[in-house]
Each structure stands twice: as C-alpha cells, then as structure tokens.
Amino acid sequence: MVAKKKTWGDEGFTTKIYYGAYTYTLKFVSEEEIRKFVHAEDDGTSVFGGVNCFEQTILICSANTEQTQKVTLLHELTHAILLRNGNSKDLDDKGIESEELVDSIAMGYFELMNRNPELMRWLTS
User: Fold this and answer.
1) Where is pLDDT greater, at 103 or 104?
2) Which alpha helices (H) appear in the chain, and where do they start and end?
C-alpha cells in the first residue's frame, strides 16, 4: 500500500513561502504545537496559527477546516508583511494612517501572489 502524499493542510505538511528577502517555512501542525510556539496557555480558547518573523516560521492548525486554514494563513501573512515593512503592533504610536496600512498589505499580497503561484492556487481553490 502506497502512503498518501501530504499536501496543503495535512498535519506534517511543510513548504516555503517567499516574501522580500525572506523565506518563511510554513508548517501545518497540531493546536498544541502552536500553543507552545506562541507561548499561549490553554485557557479554553482556540489557537489557529502563529508567526515568528525572526525565525521566518508560520504554523497553521491542521485540525481546522480548509477555509479556516486559508483565512488563518492570510492573517499570519499580514502580521509578517506589517512587521517586515517596518510597522509594529503599536500602529497608533507610529502614526500609521489607514491608507498607508492598506497600501502596505496590498503590495505585500501582490508580491506573495506573484512569487508563490502554488500558494495562490491553494488559497483560491
């Protein structure tokens, strides 16, 4: 019997996502592994994903539905884009206007779409 090849969303599936000068490792893992990654206590709330821009790693919960995985991945990529473009969690403290923020996200997603066609096919399927 031949084992099924792991693909997007499967536990243990790992791939690369390219943004700017960085190569992020994307992994689909258990919620428990994500909790450890983001240092979140088990308080009864769900943790769907996490990103570490210093390690260029994104984790997504493999137990979630495909749609939830896709939305979570876009959420984590938005964090990466904002941090890599010089924005911080305290956007108000930096005087970031909403239009600047939208432009930053749009340019980032445009680059992701152009450099990662397999990712875009998966997200739009």
Assistant:
1) 104
2) 31-38, 66-84, 98-115, 117-123
